[in-house]
Amino acid sequence: MKLMNGDNTGPINIGNPGEFTMLELAENVKELINPEVTVTMTENTPDDPRQRKPDITKAKEVLDWEPKVVLRDGLVLMEDDFRERLAVPKKTKA
């Protein structure tokens, strides 16, 4: 809301500056959602960024914003939200 109602018209990165690899992300999701799936590696596309660490300096300066949820906690919240929206029950461990 602050960005939308403000005077800044340029792009502002909103993200988490904690850098992690796509494999680390996949392993975290796998562990949380379904530890039995297999993570498959494929070739990157030519335009795939080598760095996935957004510079959020402008968000801090213009919006007084920075992330407050770490990746792992955010994935849990995302899973819960998606399951609720899609009416998909969480699998119980045997």
Essential attributes:
4 helices; extended; NAD(P)-bd_dom_sf
Based on Cα principal axes, name the global outline.
extended
Structural class: mainly alpha
Number of helices: 4
Could you tell me the mean pLDDT? Answer: 88
What series of H and E elements makes up the topology? HHHH
Strand portion, in percent? under 5%
Oligomerization category of the chains in this entry: single chain
For the sheet with most strands, the description reads: none
Uncertain regions spanning at least 5 consecutive residues: none
Count of DSSP strands: 0
Structural Rg: 17 Å
Binned, the helix content reads 40-55%
Distance between the termini: 44 Å
Secondary structure layout:
Elements: H1 2-5, H2 22-33, H3 57-63, H4 71-86
Structure description:
There is one protein chain. Helices cover 41% and strands 0% of the residues. The protein is mostly helical and 94 residues long. The protein has a domain at 21-32 and 54-89. The longest helix has 16 residues, at 71-86. The protein is extended.
Offer a concise description of the structure:
41% of the residues lie in helices and 0% in strands. The chain has helices at residues 2-5, 22-33, 57-63, 71-86.
